[in-house]
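Box 3.1. Reading complex inputs
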Amino acid sequence: MQTLHVDLGERSYPIHIGRGLLNQPELILPHLKRKQVAIVTNTTVAPLYLEKLAQPLRDAGVKVIPIILPDGEAYKNSATLNLIYDALLENRCERSTTVIALGGGVIGDLTGYAAATYLRGVPFIQVPTTLLSQVDSSVGGKTGINHPLGKNMIGAFYQPQVVLADIDTLSTLPERELSAGLAEVIKYGLIRDEPFFAWQESNMQKLLALDTEAMSYAIYRSCENKAEVVAADERESGERALLNLGHTFGHAIENAMGYGVWLHGEAVAAGTMLAADLSRRLGWLSDDDIKRIVAIFTEARLPVHAPALGVERYLDLMGLDKKVVDGQIRLVLQQGIGKSLVSSEYDAQLLRETLAIAA
Amino acid sequence: MQTLHVDLGERSYPIHIGRGLLNQPELILPHLKRKQVAIVTNTTVAPLYLEKLAQPLRDAGVKVIPIILPDGEAYKNSATLNLIYDALLENRCERSTTVIALGGGVIGDLTGYAAATYLRGVPFIQVPTTLLSQVDSSVGGKTGINHPLGKNMIGAFYQPQVVLADIDTLSTLPERELSAGLAEVIKYGLIRDEPFFAWQESNMQKLLALDTEAMSYAIYRSCENKAEVVAADERESGERALLNLGHTFGHAIENAMGYGVWLHGEAVAAGTMLAADLSRRLGWLSDDDIKRIVAIFTEARLPVHAPALGVERYLDLMGLDKKVVDGQIRLVLQQGIGKSLVSSEYDAQLLRETLAIAA
C-alpha cells in the first residue's frame, strides 16, 4: 500500500492506494468520531463491495447504515440528494456520524455534497471504486449535483478525512469506464507532467491489463499532480483551472448528448482534442504533438472526435460553463505536451473553426 | 453609522449599523467583483425596500437581477432554494456575481445557502431587514433550509462580504416580530453579558419605541457578543453552542406547532424559560433570577409559557436536534444571569419535570 498526503493545512488528509483496502477497517477507524457510519453506494456497487467494506467495520463494533441509490449520472440531482438526507434523518444521524461514499464519481460527488450540507457538515470518507474517481474525485474536495440547466452547478468544496483507493475494485469495472478513467490520467501528463505522459506512452497496455504496479503508479502520480495543483489553489481561482483541460468542451458535449450517454472521461478526451486543435491553430502545439495526443487517446480506446453539434450550439452550451469571466469564454489550452495555460486571449474566429470541424 | 468588524481571518467582514444605509451604494460597491448583483428578497419586503437598495446601485452602473420569493418560514425549503438557483442560472450568473439577501432570517438563510452552493460558492452580502436577522443571522455564517423532518437540517457555514443593518427598515416591522428579535437581544445578556442584561432592563421601553440610539447600541452589542463567540469557535464545536440557549426547546416548539405559527424568537423565549426552569431545579438559578427573566420577556411582549406538548413529544422532538452527542441531549443551561454552560450532566428526571409543567 502506498499513501499520499494531501496538504491542505487543517483540512489535510491521506490517500491510501493498494489492493485489499476495503477489508482493512484499521484505515477507517482512527478517523471516526464515534462508531457509526452511513455508507452511501448504488445498486451496481452494493452487491459487489458493500459487505466487503461493511462487515469488517461491523466486526470492529461500528454501526453501519447502508444507503443504496439508483446508479447513473442521471441520478446526480436534488431528488437523489434528498434520498440521502431522508435516510440520515430517519436514522437520526448526528454530527458525529461519518458518511462514507462507496462508488464512482457520481456517488462521491453526491455523497460528499450531502456530507458537506447535512447539519451544515459531517465527517466524510471516500472509497472510490472507479479509476476516474480514484484519480480525479479523490483529490480536490469538489462535491455537488447537476441542475437541469447545467452540470455540477450546485455544490460545495468539502474535504474527506481519508480516501481509500482499492485497485481490486477496478477488476469489475467495465472496459469503457476504465478507458474513461485513463482520460484523466492522460490529462495530468498533458497539462503539467511530460515525463508522466511519456511513461504512459510506454505503459498503456499494462494499464489496460490492470497491472498492479503500473496502475498503482498511475493513480499515485495522478493524485500527486492534482494534489500539488489543489494545495496551491484550493478554491479554484488560478492554477487549478488547468485541471479543466478539455472540460469546457467536454461539459458541452455531455450536456448536449444527455448526461450519461457519453461518459465523462470520453467527453473530456474529445474535448481535449478540441482544445488541442485550437492550440495548434494558435501555433502553440505542433502537428507532432497532436499525433502523440491522438495516439495515446486511441490506444486508451477513447474517442478523439467530438460530436457535430454545430458551432452556435457549442458556444451556447459553453457560455453556461462555470469557467466564464465577464462573458468571455476562458479555455485551458496547451503550449506543448506537459505545458498548459488558461486564456481568453485567443482569436474567436479560430475557436469557431475548431468547433466547425468537430465530428 | 457604527461599524463592527467580525474577525475570522481571511473570512473577516464588517457589519455597518445605522440609518439610511440602503441608500449608500458606496458601502456595497467595494465588495463587488464585477458590477452585477442578484438581490434575493420576498413579496413583503420587495415593495418596501427593493428599489431603495436597487436604484442607487443601478445609478452606480451595477446590473441588478431581482429574485422575489414567497414570504414565510414555510418557504424555507428546497423548492424555494431551487427558485433561486433557477433564476441565477437563467440569468447566467457567474462566480463573480454577488448575491445580496434583502429581508429577514428566512431570506438570509436561504440566500446565504444558495450563495454557498451555487457554482460551489459565490460572493454574498447580507442586508437584514428585521431585528432578529440584524442581531442574529448577521454574525456566524449559518445558512440553510428546513427539511420535513427538522429545522435547519440542511445547510452550510458561509460568511458574507459585508452586512448592512439599516435601522430604518425596522419602522415597518410588525410589533410581534420586533419582540421576537428582542428575544435574541435578551439572550446575549443571559448567556454571557450581565451588564447588557441590566441595561436592557432599564431601556426596554426605548427599544420598543425604536429609539435610534438605544436600538443601535442593542444591535451593536448583540453582534459584538455573538462575534466574540463565533470568532473563538467558527464551526460550533464548543462555546458557540451557548448561543443556542432556549433553541433546543424552541425548535421542538416550532416543529410541533408547524413552522411559522410561533415566530422563532417567541419559541426561543418560551424555550429559554424551560431552560431557566431546569436550571432552577438544578439549583443553578435563584427564584429572583427567574423573576428577572420572566419580567424582561414580559416587558418585551414575549411568551414565557411553552405549549403543552406532553413530555414524550418534547423529548422525541428534541432527540432530532443537531445538538445531540451520542444520544444524550445536551442543553444550554444557566448558572446565574450572564453565565451559561452546555451540559448533558443533569438528572433526566428533572428535565421531565420541567417539560411536564410546560403550558
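In summary: The domain at 2-172 of chain B is CATH 3.40.50.1970 (Rossmann fold).
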